[in-house]
C-alpha cells in the first residue's frame, strides 16, 4: 500500500508539473533578454514589457477587454444573483426545467452559441459590434454566475432574516441590512468569475468582435499567426498575473469583509 | 410537496420576478437564435452572396452526404475521445491523491487545481509552442546536449492537438473525479479490506465503481468541450488536423456562407446535445454543478 501511495504521490507531482510547466515557461521567457525571446536565455530584461506598453494595438486591446469584462460582470452578476435567489429560496413548479435552462448556455457548444447569436442579431440588423460582443459574453457567463452564487447562497440561513423581520424591520430593510451583506461574498465571487471568463474568452469573441476591435486573447491569437514573439509571452504573463491575482485578491477581500461583519455584529 | 399545498391557494409571483431577467436573456440570446439558425439552415446562399429565403435541402444534403464532412466529423470525435480517455486515466491519480491525502496538502492542491481555470485558454494552448517549437525548450535542450544537430519539428500534428486538449481539459476531469471520491464513505473500502480484499481489490470493487458519476461527469465535460473547439487545432494543429468547429468557423467567418455554417453548427449541436441528454437522463445534470460547491 505504501509503495502504491508513493507511486500515486509521484504521479500527482508529474501531473501538476504537466499543468504548470508550460505556463511557467511563458512567464520565464517573457523576461528573456534574447532578441528572439527563445532558448537559450541570455539574462533577464524587462524590454518586452516596455514594448507592450509602447504598442498601441495591445494597449487598446487591453482597454477593450477590461471594459467588456466589467460590463459583463455587472450585467451577468445582477441577473445571476436574482435567479440564484429564486432557485435557492423558493419552491415552484418546473424548477428542474428552469435550472437546466439557466445552465443551457454552457451545455450548448460555444461555437454553436456564437453562430446562433451572431446570425440572429444580424437578421435583426445588429451588426458585429461591441453590443453583440457584450450580449454574447453576458449569456455565456450567466450560467457560471448562477452556479457559483447558488452554491454560496445555500449556506445563508433564513433565520437571520426572520429574526430581523420579527424585530420590526420591513422587507426592504431586511434585504438591505441583513440579506445583502450576507450575500456580498457570493456576489463578489460571481462577478469575479464573470469578469475572468469574459476577459479570457476567445471562442465566441472571434465570431462576435467587429473588424478592427481586438480583446487581449484575440490580439494574442492574431499575433500567433506570424510567429511566436517574445511580446506574446510578455502579454501572456500580464494576462496571467491579471486574471490570477484578481481572484486571489478578491478571496482575501471577501475573507476580510466576512471577518469584519462577524466582529461588527457582536 | 409543501409548496403544492400553498400554491393551490395563491400563486407566488416572487420567484418568477427574480428569474425573469435571466430567463428572458436565455430566451432572447440562446433559444430563439438557435431556433433561428434551424430556419436559416434551409435557406440558400446564391452565387452573388445574398441569401435566398425558402426551404432548400441543399445545405443539409451537402453536410450529410459529402465524405469531406464525414471524415472531419469522425476525426473530431476520435480526437475528443482520445483526449477524454487520457484525461480520465491521467486525471484519476491526482484526484485520488487530493481526496485521500492529509489536509495539509489538500487545500493547496485544490487551490492550485483552480488556477488553470483562471489562465486564458489561448495562453495555455500557445504555451506549448515555447516547449515543443523549433526554438523551444525541448529542442534547445537536446541541441545543447549534442543529441541532435537540427531542431526536430514536433508541432502541428494530431498528437500536439491532443496534447493541447488534454492540457486544457485535465483540470475539469480532476475536479469532477475529486468531488465524487470525496463523497465516498471511507468505511466502505475499509470494510472490504477487513473482509479480505487487497488494497487494489478494494479499490477496483468499491472505490472505482462509486466514483463513476464523477468520472462520467468529467468525461462528458471533456468530450463536449474537446469536440467543440477550433482554437487548439488552429494553434497546435497542421492543415490536415482541422476539427468540426473549424469548418463552422471557415463557413461563417471566412466564406460568409451563413446557411451552410448554420447547418454545420446544428449538426454539431445535435451530436453533442444528444450526448448531454443521454447523460442527464441517466446521471442527472446536477453532478456537474457539484464541482462548484
TrEMBL record, chain A:
Belongs to the binding-protein-dependent transport system permease family. CysTW subfamily. Residues 62-250 form the ABC transmembrane type-1 domain. The keyword Transmembrane applies. The keyword Transmembrane helix applies. It comes from Roseospira navarrensis. The chain crosses the membrane at residues 12-31, 66-88, 100-124, 130-149, 180-199, 232-254. It comes from the Bacteria. It is a multi-pass membrane protein. This is ABC transporter permease subunit. One of its GO terms (biological process) is transmembrane transport. It is found in: Cell membrane. It holds the Pfam family BPD_transp_1. Its main location: membrane. Signal peptide: none annotated. One of its GO terms (cellular component) is plasma membrane. InterPro entries: Bact_Polyamine_Transport (IPR051789), MetI-like (IPR000515), MetI-like_sf (IPR035906). Keywords: Cell membrane, Membrane, Transmembrane, Transmembrane helix, Transport.
Automatic annotation (TrEMBL), chain B:
It is found in: Cell membrane. CDD domains: TM_PBP2. Residues 73-279 form the ABC transmembrane type-1 domain. One of its GO terms (cellular component) is plasma membrane. Belongs to the binding-protein-dependent transport system permease family. CysTW subfamily. Keywords: Cell membrane, Membrane, Transmembrane, Transmembrane helix, Transport. It is a multi-pass membrane protein. It comes from the Bacteria. Its main location: membrane. This is ABC transporter permease subunit. It comes from Roseospira navarrensis. GO terms for biological process: transmembrane transport. The chain crosses the membrane at residues 16-43, 79-100, 107-123, 160-179, 210-231, 266-284. PROSITE patterns: ABC_TM1. The keyword Transmembrane helix applies. The keyword Transport applies.
